[in-house]
Amino acid sequence: MDYRNMGRTGVSVSSLCLGAMTFGQPSEDSFMHGVAASEADSFRMMDRALEAGINFIDTADVYGDDGLSERVIGKWFADRKNRRDVVLATKCRFRMFDGRLGTGASRRRIMEAVEASLRRLQTDHIDLYQIHMQDTRTPEGEVLRALDDLVTQGKILYYGCSNYAAYRLVQADWIAEKRGFQGFATLQAQYSLAERSLEREHVPYMQQAGIGLLPWSPLAGGLLSGKYRKGEPAPDGSRMAKWGERMSRWDTPRNWRIVDALRAAADTVDASPATVALAWLLTRPTVTSVITGVRTMEQLEANLKAAELTLPSDVIERLDEASAEAPGYPYDFIKNVDGRW
What we know:
CATH topology: TIM Barrel
CATH superfamily: NADP-dependent oxidoreductase domain
Strand content: 5-15%
CATH architecture: Alpha-Beta Barrel
Structural class: alpha/beta
Radius of gyration: 20 Å
Strand order of the largest sheet: 9-8-7-6-5-4-3-10
Number of helices: 12
Distance between the termini: 33 Å
Shape: globular
Helix content: 25-40%
Number of strands: 10
């Protein structure tokens, strides 16, 4: 297992992060019902991940019913007495209860959400606390002040953001520098061979600022796992079979070209398509740790192989070409003049 600094902090985290969105079987009215893992299976996967060198676990208050994922991790900490071995990340922002005060990233909501997460997780601090999505109704200065106060109180050690527009990320960095705040250490965002939009604005700025990238959905909802083929029905029990229309956005000519290139690359290096897709992300600039969400031990074992796989440069180039997108204006204009953007 490779280890990298968690963004612009001095904390070393594994290049693979165990995503806990599927931990704990939620109720039947949850969109995660039927595609999640039992508490017992979640314990076994966390045990195996720690044994394999993964020291980074990511969750959120909204995962599962009433903080179910956090409660499963909290029980695991209490049972295994291993809190000191884990860099723990969680998030707040999305709705946790009815009413106007049950969602958002106001100072009031953040302070309340942290206390609730600490109770569920059975810990006295959170290593990386993240705003799950920018809150357009709350000034970014208020968000950062609340987070920085929590650092001073020792309830969180570092903070990051998720699902932020590039302009908001830059604004947050400017405010943090101006007011002497710690600032965001990481950005958690959707990033994969099938979703490379971050490379237009986010990645260049993050390279300059030293912010670490934590990709989520690295297999594009399972598209890059190798179990789907164009024109064939999705396997029973898979996300595409369960979620249907929700996953139909991946059904494009470009994405099937990527899947074909991924299968060819997998044959070249004698690995699974999922392993290759994760290994490709580990070659990208600013990537700190790739969040791998799993619901079975078999999926975890397959993903662990990505940490050991070094892709040849020609394989990386072919994957880059197959997944390349037209950058659009003004990037293509700039590239036509300068040869790059």
